[in-house]
Amino acid sequence: MDHQRKPITVSSLILWLYSLFALFVLAYMTYQSLRPKSEILSKTFGLPDTLSFGTYARLFSEGHFHIYFMNSVIIVCISLLIVVMLSSMVAYGIGRFQFRFKKGLLIYFLLGMMFPVQLGIVPIFIIIRSMGLLDTHAAIILILSAGLSMAVFLLTVFFQRLPKEIYESAKVDGAGEWTTFMRVMFPLASPVVFSICIIMSVQIWNQFFVPLIFLQSEANKTIPLMIMKYTTNLLYTVDLALGASVISTVPILIAFFFFSKRIMDGVAAGGVKG
Q1: Is 160 exposed, middle or buried (0-12, 13-18, 19+ CB in 10 A)?
Q2: Range of the domain at 94
Q3: Is 8 domain-assigned?
Q4: pLDDT band with cut points at 50, 70 and 90 for residue 264
């Protein structure tokens, strides 16, 4: 059977060009990170005399990259756990039950997708300071895990689209509301939950503004703040800045490469009805 080739549209061409440019930038950044600082500054576009992993070794020995890395991992994991727990329960309640102000509550979460945390940073800072959580991971986790809007929206649409027979059959078998949610509904939503975890992990991993405001000590700072430290005096630490940028970007790209299909399936499952 002959398969007709799909025509290349303008939008797909733009996306391909953008993707190729992004890959080129990452490859060039990786190449430069393998060169010594003297060559980067003197022969930026020239052929290298040597290539080595010395910059990456310095990041761990002198820059203590592993500390920043573990801080970011801790914040991402705990924040995702809180987001999944809260958003799934909220979305299940909105999607499966009828009550007053249901549409208003859903609009409230939709509005949350339109307003960034920067708009309310002053009252948030005052609240966190009054709680005694300044310069702690708990402050970052509380703020970032409060961003439930996207997760609630996707999961609400998914639960609304599930056949009522699934819910009714669980009730017939004698399952309570909590058992129905944990053993039936939540496992069915696993593709959407997986997509939410990947998408939000990227947002939390790359979060710069919130840690910049609330973290002061080097022992608690995250990877984006470490990169900022090296870019402040770029002429002196350009090699470390390049290496830190590469090593902080690669894990996210690998996750997207291996799980891109599952991400798209999950977003489609939680997409808006046609």
Answers
A1: middle
A2: 65-269
A3: no
A4: low
